[in-house]
Amino acid sequence: MDTLTKLQTTLGPECKRDQSLANFTTLKVGGPADLFVETKTRDALENAVRQAIHVGVPFTILGGGSNILIGDKGIRGLVIRNMTREITMRGIKGKYENGNHVGEVYVETDSGVIFNSLVRFTIEEGYQGIEMHLGLPGTVGGALFMNSKWTNPEGYVGDVLHSATIVTTRGEVQNVGKEYFHFGYDTSILQKTKETVLSATFELKRSTKETLWDIANRSIAYRRSTQPQGVFTLGCTFQNISKSEAFTIPTPLHTTSAGYLIDHAGLKGYTRGKAQVSPIHANFIVNTGGATAKEILDLVAVIKEKVKQKFNVELKEEIVKVGDF
Ligand SMILES: Cc1cc2nc3c(=O)[nH]c(=O)nc-3n(C[C@H](O)[C@H](O)[C@H](O)COP(=O)(O)OP(=O)(O)OC[C@H]3O[C@@H](n4cnc5c(N)ncnc54)[C@H](O)[C@@H]3O)c2cc1C
User: Fold this and answer.
1) Ligand 1 binding pocket mutation candidate from 25, 85, 148 (most atoms within 8 A of CB)
2) How remote is the CA of residue 220 from the centroid of ligand 1, in Å?
3) Phi and psi at residue 275, in whole multiples of 5°?
4) End-to-end alpha-carbon separation of the chain, Å?
5) Whole-angstrom Cα distance, residue 265 to residue 66?
6) Which atom of ligand 1 lies closest to the CA of 139?
7) What would the pLDDT profile of 159-204 be if each residue is shown by its tens digit?
8) Is pTM beyond 0.90 here?
9) CB-CB neighbours of 214 under 10 Å
10) Ligand 1: which of 38, 111, 136 to mutate, judged by most atoms within 8 Å of the beta carbon?
11) Exposure string for 4-31, b = 16+ CB within 10 A, e = fewer
């Protein structure tokens, strides 16, 4: 029996062959997975990862598919769609002043929890720390992999992580603290180690839900006024440039915005097949209907080339490319 068949047999009838993946991403692009399984509990997620490691089949975790460009020829090995959804209160620290708790609260979430659900839950409970991320698509696992961020008010998801449970590439389950992740702009250690996050505990502060909704609603309003709505996209395609690079180019206030550079390279609305630079936000590539991964990559290459010609800056992709192109 070949290893794929062996793994499929172990994972049971829910594990399918040649599952098309495009609809599991927000860009709606990409070919099939050799093997595909959806995991709804932490145990099932851990089991799928460990079984794949055990038989030596490569595996890929798919969260909300909101930052992932899957190749037209699909992904070899097993794709695990993480649909674990549990949120648990883990405890509080601090003291009571005038009957009010002052201090930290600890919320543990499965890595497949939809980040927006977590944001709404913490706001309603009056827990401060991730409210600015309202509107961030995807799951907790994807947000830790990317250290997803918001700029006004500035916040990175990793800022408020306390600890996490991961599965190593040898199949061992470990608890690790926030420092383990080496969070930076659009980066975490997971991008190198390829470890899987099973669950995460966030350390949040007490606030009022009115204050938190106010911040969250301002984030959402800003998203709605600056980003295309109801389109197939992965959000920002490129990272913003560094402050030191921004000082080398003659732009207003030395902006670090990749979108500004793409726009001023004359690319808003530019298309390659069915892939388009959004006319609303130049750092968003939109699938206008039936785009291929190749068209997206061709457009990425054109953008990089034109921005290099005009500003002498190398843009770096923020999106993750996975599979065979
Ligand atoms: C409209 C729109 C707006 C966006 N706005 C923002 C924004 O404001 N800020 C921002 O930073 N990003 C933004 N993004 C990008 C994207 O939403 C984030 O990067 C998001 O956190 C990705 O999460 P995901 O679950 O969808 O990850 P996926 O796209 O499913 O996966 C991304 C990577 O994470 C890995 N991964 C996923 N889960 C796990 C896990 N449990 N363990 C280990 N690795 C895992 C995957 O294997 C893959 O390599 C936006 C995207 C869209 C479409």
Assistant:
1) 148
2) 18
3) -100, 135
4) 28
5) 26
6) 25
7) 999 999 999 999 999 999 999 999 999 999 999 999 999 999 999 9
8) yes
9) 12
10) 136
11) beebbeebeeebbeebebbebbbbbbbb
